[in-house]
Amino acid sequence: MNNGLKVRADQSSGHVWCGPAVLSAALQITTSEAEKIILLCSLRKYMKAVTYAEMCHALASQGVRFFPETFDRENVNCPQLSDWLETREKDLTYLVCITGHWIAVRGNHWVCNMNREARLLEKCPYLEARVRFTIQLLEDRK
Question: What's the alpha-carbon Rg for the chain, to the nearest Å?
Answer without folding.
Answer: 14
